[in-house]
Structure formats: structure tokens, C-alpha cells
Amino acid sequence: MYSKLDSSLPFMKMHGLGNDFVVLDARAQRLEVTPALAIALADRHRGIGFDQLALITAGQGADAHLTFYNADGSTSAACGNATRCIARHIMNETGQAALTLTTDRGALQAVDAGQGLTSVNMGHPQVDWQDIPLAEAMQTLELPIEGGPTATGMGNPHCTFFVQDATAVPLDQFGARYEHHPLFPQRTNVQVASVVGPDHLRMRVWERGVGITLASGSSSCATAVAASRRGLTGRTVRIDLDGGTLTVDWRDDGVWVTGATMHVASGVLTAQWLASV
After folding, report:
1. What is the fold, at CATH topology level, of the domain defined by 9-122+261-276?
2. pLDDT tens-digit profile of 34-44?
3. Which of 24, 75, 118, 172 could share a disulfide with 84, CB 3.0–4.6 Å?
4. Whole-model pTM above 0.70?
């Protein structure tokens, strides 16, 4: 809960390719986010609405620390598009062209990629079953699930299905089914992807704790890694999502994701609304 219910609370609304976020900046004030507050803020009718909530706090040895909450109040160690959005905000604020942001995923590097684009290194992918994690020991390239999806960790678990036509999959049913598959004890993000051409994928996303989203940075990273591991693409991939296009480059130092960001608005949550949560 917000620590001063008699005061209004500033927020920012941002999105990366329609993957949208409410951002709270606690670098200069003390804020406590509870699952109840996150759920109330996520309500698109009675709150603000978001796919993820991001909390910025002062970084130790870094430019800032980021904590992420899903629409159902659960937390996530990684959120690529929110990290890119906040990196762009801090770059605009400070004039810096490169940042270090810490998350529960670890320290992430962000750079101005030019032409209004922002790149973030989401770290090395996790491809061993215990790191993703899966419920039992197995190879992760093709899981013993119908469709043979690939499991990848990017600080959060991912299950990627390669299909003939990603747009034809009933994702509302498909994603809900596999998010809670028993092989994933922490639930999983679900992607369906199809090969469009050399190093070019079409992907759609179901995010755990959220549902269908127009884009996802960590899902794009996981899908690019899975496609490369399976020999479907190289290590640099263009990914077309429902909300736009990201470029993912799996380098020796980690998986970099690059794309556009948007700071939509800044506003305040009223004391009346905060007291109702």
C-alpha cells in the first residue's frame, strides 16, 4: 500500500509496442506496493490499467533498481519492454546514453540505439531445466508436451511453440491452458511463433498473470533463443508482434532487445482512490 494515503501519488503511463505499464518512481520517496494495490491499478475500468506495474527505486551501484508486478499482483523478475521504457525515461531525464539498471534478474545494461530506439541486454538465457525452472529433469529443446515446445528462462519462464501460422492459434484458450502446465511450477509465459523468412518470425504472446499482450520483450528474447537453438534462425532476429516489431540479438554477453518506447502520460492517483484500495 502507498505509505501516505492522505497524499496523491504520481504515476507515469508508458508502453512498448502496446505492451503497457504503470510506472511509480520511488527514488525520492518511500512507496510500498502490495498485491492489492497492483491489482487495483491494473483494473482498466476502476484503476489505470496495465500489463505490468514497474516500481523504480534508487540503485546501489546502478542508475536505478526496477521491480515488476503482473496484473494479478504477482511479481516477475524480468520485463524487457518496461525496462526499455524506463531506461528511455532516465536517459531523457539525465542526458545519459547508457545506463545500468538492476532487477531481480540481475544488472542489465541499456543503451540509446539511435533513431528513438532503446536497447536492453536482458542477460544470458537459461536453458537448463532447473534454472528455468521445470518440475523435473529433462532436455528443454523439445518438451514432452504436444507440439514439442521449447523452454527458456529469461529471469522468468517461457514456453515457445513453433507453429505454421501464429495468427491462427486461439491464444486466449491456448495460452491459459499452458500457463498452468504442471511442468512449470512457477507458471509460464506462452508464445506461438511462425517462421516468416530468414531470421524473421511472427509471434504472439500470452503472459503469465496477465493474459494476451500486444508485445513482450522477455518473450521475444526467449523466442529468438529458442528459434536459434532449433536451427530455425540465426542469432539476430526480427520479431513481428501484434503491437509492432522488435529486434533481438543473442550475443556473447547476453540477449539484446531493441525497439521503440512511448511515454504516454504523467498523472496523479488521488488520495480518495488510494484510500479505496
Report:
1. Diaminopimelate Epimerase; Chain A, domain 1 (3.10.310)
2. 999 999 999 99
3. 118
4. yes
